[in-house]
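User: I'm writing a short methods note and want a consistent example. For COMM domain-containing protein 5, I'll paste the sequence; you return only the structure tokens, no commentary, since I'll be parsing the reply automatically.
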Amino acid sequence: MASRWKKAGAAVKIQNAAIKVLASVPHGIDGDTYFSPSIPPAVRDCVPLLSSDSVTPEIFKGVLELTTNSLVRPKSSPILIPQIESLSASSGLSFSDASALLTGLVLIISTAVRNKTKVSVVQRNLKAMNVPEEQVKAVVDSLRALRSALETAAVEHRVSAPKLSSFKWRVDVVISTDALSKVFRPTILAETTTSDGKTRTFEVPIEQFHELRYNVAKVLRNMEEVERHPIMRLAFQADREAFDKDGGKE
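Assistant:
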């Protein structure tokens, strides 16, 4: 009798291991997904949780809404410990599994937005990664509905260097020095203030100022010529049409 129970227990363990393998991200597909060159470990940990019986359609809907809100409004709707604890209590997942679920879903959506991946590619890749079909559809629908807001938020809240908020300058003329009684050499005295509140003052020789002015004008002219080129207009048009394509089609 004991041996029969032992065999049954071993069979259940084998069955659970097989289910876990089937629900996991297959190996060797990293380069074929929009996560290329490699799928983040947090996403690999998240995918089996999406197939868990604890993550019902209602719970996943709430998790997806929490995720998209945090990406669209990262300052006013961040994912904090109370939200993770609430998800853990409602789903029966441990705190670490609930954290992994949220982290993975954030990466799935934010990477698609950052890489400007077509909705059809996101749908195909998530299916190949063994994400359940209903949840793939929910992610794709959210991407399609909130794409503009997600991209705007990603640009506004991305990590970047401080921006130039003000620039002041004046011309100073050096009349004389210790070595020369008459110099009359003009220099540009500039003062910059950046978005982090720091102010910097520096001098620019008049020759370098003219060189800078010439190079800036040249770059602006080149940019205008590129934007006016017919090929660029066609490329922008194709890019917009690609984002509007139906998720089930190429």
